[in-house]
Design brief:
498 residues, mainly alpha, 4 strands
């Protein structure tokens, strides 16, 4: 493998670091607490091991210099910077196996692994971000080494085991990258034997790493949340319905990223990539006329159409999958597959079209800077709301706090609303901190010294009946409030709690 000392390799590494660090800059500058951060920043708990992520606990303990006691403090933006560097190193290794002349364009394609709308959610977690980025890096790492198959199998198995101990959702990225590696080998007209060996290494590492993880780490998966999200759909009559339900949920989430603006970018890339892949598969079958060659060509075609399925991968077979933006790490891998196949299609016939990859890059940077500004603006807006609630509580003469309820939710700030209107894809990743679900609202208000517990859902009708009365009402600019007998109702809808 080429040494780091060579000029092309140094340039590639510098490019990867610059692209990734500049990409996370607006999130670092926004400096907000994102969902689970609200609890960790105040209470310092780690507990990733209880969700089957023991290595996430380990690296954060090491970073906090608290090996013996599971307590973490806010070190942002250090975990974000470390995460960006980890991914950059993986991208550098991935592109270093390409011919020198195509490496900058291959880096543009590989950059989409991290520069996509869904991964913004992963990058926004102040505590989880390093472990999630490391998991993605370990999904990429098996494809950075070109050695004897036994060495590659060992290296890939170790990488995947570490991935599983960090963040299992990144496994879907590895599966799509494995498919991409096969398609790349077909494009380079590798022998059927070489391709079967490549496929065997990828599948073998996947199986071995999962066995190792189940044997050595599964005992760390404790608690109802972790276990419910690991349960597979039972092999009975419910299987088709459950999988179909998961597919609908997954593609509904995925559909939020497929806005008209993103489709104008992705559609040309996808059409060219698909036609090129089908052409190369057919050409491969004519070059290797043996049964093995025809099977490889057919496999390439089938695998191509399986890529959208593996954006969700194993999530489709779970009883209670978490179909959230943070688990869509496979989406970035699918974008990389499309971009790389696009490059392979036009590299000889129309090399000037390689610069089209600048379009999704520019879009990605515009999106992340808009997202960072939306985060910052919404945080300032929410803090004003929290200060108003605190002022209302200070002016009430009610007794000890018994409970609080939010009727409705805080609308996006004017700045965030304009950004969401321009980039609707951000609607799923911009957090709604103050809402009627309770848990994020309670944690956020606690940071301002407001320690009202949020009432349980079943108690809401009774509290509304006894508290939302005209005699207890105080009108406000952003919300109306009702206080009675230790209960506080914040009415963001301003409609009398109707």
């Amino acid at each position: 493998m080429e040494s780091l000392r060579t000029t092309p390799s140094k340039f590639l590494l510098t490019l990867a670091l610059a692209m990734c660090l500049f990409y996370v800059l607006p999130i670092a500058l926004a400096n907000v607490y994102y969902l689970d951060d609200l609890d960790r920043v105040a209470n310092g708990y780690a507990s990733w091991s209880t969700n089957g992520r023991p290595l996430a606990d380990g690296i954060m303990m090491l970073l906090n210099l608290r090996i013996s006691e599971p307590i973490v403090v806010d070190l942002a933006p250090l975990p974000l910077v470390l995460g960006a560097v980890s991914v950059a190193l993986a991208l550098w290794g991935l592109c270093r196996v390409q011919p020198v002349s195509t490496r900058p364009f291959a880096m543009m394609a590989a950059f989409l692994l991290v520069a996509n709308p869904f991964f913004l959610s992963n990058l926004s977690y102040r505590f989880d971000v390093w472990s999630m980025c490391l998991a993605l890096a370990f999904a990429i790492a098996p494809f950075t080494l070109r050695r004897e198959w036994k060495v590659e199998l060992l290296w890939s198995t170790v990488c995947l085991f570490l991935l599983l101990c960090l963040y299992q959702a990144a496994l879907n990225a590895y599966i799509i990258l494995s498919i991409t590696a096969v398609l790349y080998a077909v494009a380079r007209q590798a022998t059927p034997t070489a391709i079967w060996r490549e496929l065997g290494v990828r599948v073998g590492a996947l199986l071995l790493s999962n066995v190792l993880y189940e044997v050595s780490a599964s005992q760390l998966v404790q608690g109802s949340y972790a276990m419910s999200h690991r349960d597979f759909v039972s092999l009975n009559g419910d299987l088709p319905a459950a999988v179909w339900r998961n597919i609908q949920t997954g593609y509904a989430t995925l559909g939020t990223a497929l806005t008209p603006s993103t489709m104008w970018i992705l559609l040309p890339l996808t059409i060219v990539a698909l036609l090129g892949t089908l052409y190369r598969a057919g050409r491969y079958a004519t070059i290797y006329r043996s049964a093995a060659g025809i099977v490889v060509a057919a496999l390439a075609v089938i695998a191509t159409f399986c890529i959208p399925v593996f954006v969700f991968g194993i999530l489709l077979a779970l009883k209670d999958p978490v179909m959230e933006p943070r688990t869509m790490i496979g989406f970035g891998a699918a974008l990389y597959a499309v971009a790389l196949m696009f490059l392979l299609t036009i590299e000889k016939r129309a090399p000037i079209l390689r610069y089209f990859l600048l379009v999704p890059m520019i879009y990605a940077y515009s999106l992340v800077f808009a997202y960072g500004n939306a985060l910052h603006a919404q945080e300032r807006y929410d803090s004003v709301i929290a200060a108003s609630i605190l002022s209302r509580l200070d002016n009430t003469r009610e007794g000890a706090p018994r409970g609080m309820y939010f009727h409705g939710l805080v609308k996006p700030s004017p700045v965030a609303a304009l950004i969401l209107n321009h980039f609707p894809v951000l609607d799923t990743v911009l957090p709604q901190t103050l809402d009627d679900t309770g848990w994020t609202s309670e944690l956020y208000l606690a940071l301002f010294g407001i320690n009202y517990p949020f009432i349980e859902t079943e108690d809401v009708p009774e509290v509304i009946r006894t508290t939302c009365r005209p005699e207890y009402k105080v009108r406000g600019e952003r919300f109306d409030s009702y206080a009675h007998d230790g209960f506080m109702v914040i009415d963001f809808k301003k409609n009398g709690c109707q």
